[in-house]
Design brief:
This protein has one domain: Alpha/Beta hydrolase fold, catalytic domain (Rossmann fold, 3-Layer(aba) Sandwich), CATH 3.40.50. Helix content is 50%, strand content 14%. It contains 13 helices and eight strands. An eight-stranded mixed beta sheet has the order 1-2-4-3-5-6-7-8, sandwiched between helices.
């Protein structure tokens, strides 16, 4: 029994050391990387956002699960040359505070609208949603169509994704979600997730940091290594099915606005996506483009899932086209 006591003591020491290391490293990162944008208080929490450019309509960009405003660093400065563009960190990511509110699509829409009000960004907006946040972007349009002038969807999650894709891939994704929900917060507090980030071996997106410009990679790794990241990512993962149902219900009872709409699909499989799954997701994206009479579906042949980093010129170009269409409609 002595060996068991010794083993437990060693494990407790490792866990304790890891937790102390994680706390100190997170504090160091906060000092090393101050917020590049502005902080504003909404309902007792600090939210971080960054505005570039001038003009109307304002382009609002939102990132996928786990992402931050850094995901748009190759896009935002270029869009700022022809209109105003607003990026932000959702609650619990980047420099925005963790929120105890459920990470549902409805909550995300409400929080974004409050943030835009505090930042004095008036509608109508051109909404740009990527991956998981595409559910939020579309729900925004269903609920507040008068505030949305145009939309770009970047390889977004579809509410029918788990129904239409191969069973093996769905089961793998759902097992990964459960792993992230229960394990990620724990290894995040222990500093183990920080090690995975350091070596760019995320269980859900290996090789992600290589897509960032070299100058941004240390900052991006620091953001992903925060303790609150693990908690937030876990809660968003737990809300995937709820968010899909919220959007599916809204789609049944509310028409999509007749606005300029571009839907981009990745053309290359990455992050564990097979060619079969990729083609099925492309079909689902084509379905989304059909929601608006002005909808256009484009396959980004040069890009994997993170199109705004793999092929930023394409994203910039379609945003420009949407803004120009909005101008033509508003000012004939």
């Amino acid at each position: 029994m002595l060996w068991l006591v010794v083993l437990l003591g060693v494990l407790m020491g490792v866990v304790g050391f890891g937790a102390i290391y994680q706390a100190l490293a997170t504090s160091r990162d906060r000092r090393r990387f101050p917020p590049p944008g502005k902080l504003v208080e909404v309902n007792g929490n600090n939210w971080h956002y960054q505005i570039m450019g001038k003009g109307h309509p304002t382009v609002i960009v939102d990132s996928g699960s786990g992402g931050s405003h850094l995901d748009w660093q190759l896009v935002q400065p270029e869009v700022a040359k022809f209109t105003r563009i607003f990026s932000y960190d959702r609650a619990g990511y980047g420099w925005s505070d963790f929120s105890s509110e459920p990470r549902t699509a409805e909550q995300a829409v409400n929080e974004l609208r409050q943030l835009l009000k505090e930042a004095e960004i008036e509608p109508p907006y051109v909404l740009v949603g990527m991956s998981f946040s595409g559910l939020f972007t579309r729900l925004f349009a269903y609920q507040y169509p008068e505030e949305v002038a145009g939309m770009v969807l970047v390889d977004v999650t579809h509410e029918k994704m788990y129904e239409e894709t191969p069973t093996e891939w769905v089961e793998l994704n759902q097992r990964l979600e459960k792993l992230l929900i229960y394990v990620l917060p724990i290894i995040g507090r222990m500093g183990l997730f920080r090690l995975l980030v350091t070596f760019d071996y995320l269980p859900f997106a290996a090789g992600l940091f290589q897509k960032f410009p070299p100058s941004i990679q240390p900052l991006a790794k620091a953001i992903y290594s925060q303790t609150q990241f693990g908690k937030t990512f876990a809660e968003e993962s737990a809300a995937v099915s709820v968010n899909m149902k919220q959007v599916e219900q809204a789609r049944k009872i509310k028409p999509f606005p007749e606005i300029p709409l571009f839907v981009l699909s990745s053309g290359k499989p990455d992050f564990g996506i097979t060619q079969e799954v990729l083609e099925k997701l492309q079909e689902l994206h084509a379905d989304l483009a059909n929601e608006s009479p002005q909808g256009v579906h484009i396959i980004a042949d040069k890009s994997g899932h993170v199109i705004q980093l793999d092929d930023p010129e394409l994203v910039i170009d379609v945003i420009r086209q949407v803004v120009e269409k909005v101008h033509c409609h508003s000012f004939p």
